[in-house]
Amino acid sequence: MARNSTRENIITAADRLFYERGFENSSFADVAQLVGISRGNFYYHFKTKDEILDAVIRRRIEERARMLDAWVDTSQSPKESIAQFIRILLMNEEKIRRYGCPVGSLFAELAKLNHPAEGGAREVFNLFRIWLRRRFEEMGKGQASDRLALHLLARSQGVAMLARAYPTEPFLEREAEELLAWLETVAEG
Amino acid sequence: MARNSTRENIITAADRLFYERGFENSSFADVAQLVGISRGNFYYHFKTKDEILDAVIRRRIEERARMLDAWVDTSQSPKESIAQFIRILLMNEEKIRRYGCPVGSLFAELAKLNHPAEGGAREVFNLFRIWLRRRFEEMGKGQASDRLALHLLARSQGVAMLARAYPTEPFLEREAEELLAWLETVAEG
DNA sequence: GTCTATAATATGATAGAC
DNA sequence: GTCTATCATATTATAGAC
């Protein structure tokens, strides 16, 4: 992976632009310019714009799956793994303030466009949902695990949205702390 | 207001389409067709597409300001007013599941487009923020009022996002109940 | 594999008749 | 106030040379 082939470079550039400017608002010309190739060369690697979108979504899923695996490997407990999830809000703070959550913003855009790839974007949510559910199950939360997973996902999405609306205020850090405190009460209860 | 003039009809149609399909994805042709006028007639009422967007945002702010005033008038307590705010998730459940929150989705789109009207879209958030802050102040929450207002706004946004991602699941009702329970604990604490 | 045209279409916007 | 052209531009996509 991360081969320096033109195809991989296209996916990397598209991934970035789709996040920073949105999918519809990113043209082939924009991506081609960022990669440093001509628009025509584009179509040798991808027949349609939707194919690039699919490739971007697949890569995002793969990257996040690896990240989630690593969190499980490096954490001492499921609670610590979930805390890692909450802390990505802080790790990506600057980007979230500027562009929101990449998962939520792409899904929201594709859903509004009624785009065929909406399902693929939802899969990224699913990845986190299922991973979080497993961690809560390991914490002994049983039937409540899925509810807790969705709750935490929703809280994170809301924090990202408001952090973008009020990027200069210390809102994101405060809410991340509240989420970590919430995690403690869940662990105790 | 709600005059049946062509101008008002255009704003109404644009408001709906911007919500259901997004701003960029709604063309003049789409709006004109919904209103039942020609594309050319359009430019007699609005010189640019951005002017329509501004008019839509202004109307949304006015409508919501009236709604918030009405909630204060019909509620017995500030807590009851805030509960009304939470219940709009349930009142608009079907639309939220299909199109998300109109406030959040328009703001997110304009922010990603780096559109000049992003500030106007943020004003809708501000309207709710300030209103909620006042209610919490009336509940005696003092300096914590703004933090509580932003927290509730973020929670609502997150619920709307996940409700759109999982529209067939009973997620929204459950989270609305949790928010009402949260409001009780805030009132007691 | 990469390039330079070029086609085909959609869209925001304008001009002018009625 | 509303209409029918029409323009100008951007964008996805294709054809074919190198």
UniProtKB/TrEMBL annotation, chains A, B:
Domain HTH tetR-type: 4-64
Pfam families linked: TetR_N
DNA-binding region listed in the record: 27-46
The keyword Transcription is annotated on this UniProt entry: yes
Key words of the record: DNA-binding, Transcription, Transcription regulation
Top-rank lineage group of the source organism: Bacteria
Molecular function in Gene Ontology: DNA binding
InterPro entries attached to this UniProt entry: Homeodomain-like_sf, HTH_TetR, Tet_transcr_reg_TetR-rel_C_sf
Protein name, entry field: TetR family transcriptional regulator
